[in-house]
Structure formats: C-alpha cells, structure tokens
C-alpha cells in the first residue's frame, strides 16, 4: 500500500513548494563554501580536519543561525542487502527563505555513512501555507515524495509529517 504523498499540500492548492533551492548565503554562514585546494602543490599544507561523529555534528550545529528552528531528528537503519544496512540520521531545520519569492526553507544535517561525514542538504522552499509548521510538513512531504518514499508507508518520515500537522492544529 502506498501513501498519498500530497495530503498536506492538497489542503493549500495555491501554495508552492520548490525542491533543491539555492542557498548561497546560508552556505557561507555555515562555512561550507570553503573548498579543498585544487592545486596538488597546495595539498602539502592542507590538513583535512579529523573529527569524531559527535564532534562533526556539533561543529555544524554550532554554525546554524539563531533564527533557524530545529524541527526534529530522525534516525533509522535501513536494510540494504544481506549483512549491509544504511545508517540514516537527519536533523531538520526550518529557516527564512533566501529566495525573496519564497517564505520558508527546509534543510537537514545528514549523516553520510558511506563517507562518514555530515553534510548539509537544502531540500525545499515554499510559500503560501497557513503557518511555519504546516509549511514544514508540506516541504517534508514533497521531499519524501521526491525521494520515492511514498512507496514505503512505513518510512518514519511520514510519522514526522503527521506529528507536525497534529501539533499545528
């Protein structure tokens, strides 16, 4: 059984959700615009910082601007193939949109278990919903649909969407 991915968004037909927004200002604020040296001569002087998982997370969270709201953290293990799993951890944030045509921005600090680093994913922006909470639920819904999670009604993200909608009532 698949879940209808447009439950929240269907309540606001004039509202808009846009996926994969460009967020240069926040990117710079969080220090994510710094790149590794491309010239191999510069690599001798370049040291990749070495952090444990908790330290990596805390370093990124410490750079989150004060007006950004921490929405929730989702963690799960997804079976991939015999003996292999994906370790998923996403901490979601709601922020004012950089794009002047939008109201809200949704992003997450995501654990990449292949590279063993945290990354920041700017996933959606929106306008036209009745509240910040409903905007968050609508952007999560659109993001999970884009990730084809509507095929998995047991995906924990759907519970998060439902919790946000219930708390907004």
Q: Can you walk me through this structure?
A:
The chain is α+β, with helices and mostly antiparallel strands. It is 26% helix and 30% strand. A 5-stranded antiparallel β-sheet has the order 1-5-4-3-2.
Concise account of the structure shown:
The chain is built from four helices and five strands, in the order βααββββαα. It is an alpha+beta fold and 169 residues long.
- How do the helices and strands follow one another from N- to C-terminus? EHHEEEEHH
- Roughly how much helix do the residues carry, as a percent range? 25-40%
The profile of the biggest β sheet is: 5 strands, antiparallel
Radius of gyration: 18 Å
Spatial ordering of strands, largest sheet = 1-5-4-3-2
Beta-strand content: 25-35%
Q: How many angstroms separate the termini?
A: 27 Å
Structural class: alpha+beta
């Amino acid at each position: 059984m698949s879940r209808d991915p447009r439950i929240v968004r269907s309540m606001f037909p004039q509202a808009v959700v846009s996926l994969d927004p460009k967020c240069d200002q926040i990117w710079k604020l969080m220090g994510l615009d710094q790149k590794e040296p491309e010239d191999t001569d510069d690599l001798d002087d370049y040291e990749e910082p070495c952090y444990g998982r908790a330290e990596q997370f805390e370093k990124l969270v410490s750079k989150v601007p004060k007006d950004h709201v921490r929405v929730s953290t989702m963690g799960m293990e997804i079976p991939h193939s015999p003996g292999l799993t994906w370790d998923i951890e996403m901490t979601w944030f709601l922020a004012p949109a950089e794009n002047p045509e939008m109201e809200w921005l949704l992003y997450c600090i995501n654990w990449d278990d292949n590279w063993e680093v945290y990354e920041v994913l700017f996933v959606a922006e929106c306008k036209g919903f009745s509240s910040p909470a409903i905007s968050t639920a609508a952007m999560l819904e659109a993001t999970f649909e884009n990730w084809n999670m509507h095929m998995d009604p047991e995906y924990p993200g759907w519970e998060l969407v439902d919790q946000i909608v219930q708390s907004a009532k």
